[in-house]
Amino acid sequence: MIEIVKLVINGKEHILPVIEGSEGEKAIDIRGLRQETGYITFDPGFGNTGTCRSAITYMDGEKGILRYRGFPIEQLAEHSTFVETAFLLITGELPTRKELTRTSVYLNDFSPLHENMKAFYQNYPPKAHPMGILSAMVNAMRSFYPELIDLEEEMNTTYLRLISKIRTMAAMAYRISQGERVVYPRSDLCYCANFLNMMFDNVVVPYKIDSDLVRALNVFWILHADHEQNCSTTAVRVVGSGKVNIYSTISAGISALWGPLHGGANQAVVNMLEKIYSDGFTVKECLSKAKDKNDPFRLYGFGHRVYKTYDPRAKIMKKICDIALSKMKRKDPLLEIAKRLEDAALNDSYFKEKNLYPNVDFYSGILLRAMGIPVNMFTVMFAIGRLPGWISQWKEDVADPEMRISRPRQIYSGSQKRDYIPIKDRGQSVKQ
Ligand code: ACO
What we know:
By secondary structure, the chain is mainly α.
């Protein structure tokens, strides 16, 4: 049966076409609405607006489903590596052994930074947030690697260069912020082990690579690799729609990810748990602050625009946290507090009524702490993981014949037309 949507405005009927996705999702196509009726739609935060057709990630927020290119996140987290998942997202298919080897070779070859780029780091103030440094460095790559992208090439060297160098740039930002010497990438190490080594190797105590931590980091980055049209990905698509180069577009995505309502939530969660641990702030107080409409505090790591049930990534993250901590024979009091907080929130009528469940950020900070990653690097870790998603979404967008420059409309609510008043006639302003 062909579905028809009728819109009646002042007694006049307008037929609107319906678009259906491969998993049965439906959308009313309003592209001709303004021209035909003079009306636009109003949807702050784009909660009900589809801005593109996408074949990358499927999520069902009611059922807690997440799939990359059709593969369930649970299977990828169990069997895949971050590099393989990145290849899958960008090209649409899992790599053959030969393709995976070639990808790893490129990732190794591209890992060192241009010597002149290193000079930038020295001029940042000592406590500069690594997220700001990272977005500036990625933007600067446009000047150092200006080659054009051949969109015919599936796994273009520009994508590989970005994925490889972001890891070096992130580790370098951390080392310099600590006043420590920079550790260069090693070609004998895989992507995740290389990152951990660049972060933590030391002349006095050489870093010992732990295969459990390497696996945990792979899973952490797989879980963050894409999440369809979220805030930072939308920033990437909007900026990219103006035909901006890929480096500047990704840099915009990194900036969008920084905020505590999005990628910065993992840092906010750990700050919140630490406050409960050290300041005598109780779980009960935390929940009542989160519920108080006059208090800007939120229960960080809870709630999601799309998931109205448990975020499937949070389930995996919680499991990985438990495994990583027990293998390392370490106890983290924050994990115990997080579990108590989760139990209390899941049994609280406010959170139940609003369908607020833990999201990926609720447990991710605890896993990062277990790896020794400092809190101000948490959002940077998220950015490294999300990079393959941003690249795939950008690639899909620029190749899509339906895409136009992003340019939403608005409902103007300011003053109506009025005449200019010469300064001598304006009287005393109340605002000084
Ligand atoms: N704590 C307390 N109340 C909350 C929370 C929370 N974490 N999240 C939502 N609510 C309440 C809101 O106050 C609102 O209440 P109201 O209907 O009485 O006004 C209702 O639930 C709906 O919330 P919105 O903010 O309208 O939902 P939205 O979809 O716009 O926001 C968001 C989603 C930003 C994730 C929100 O849940 C939030 O701020 N969570 C905390 C921050 C966080 O964890 N962010 C990470 C998200 S995952 C990611 O980006 C990787």
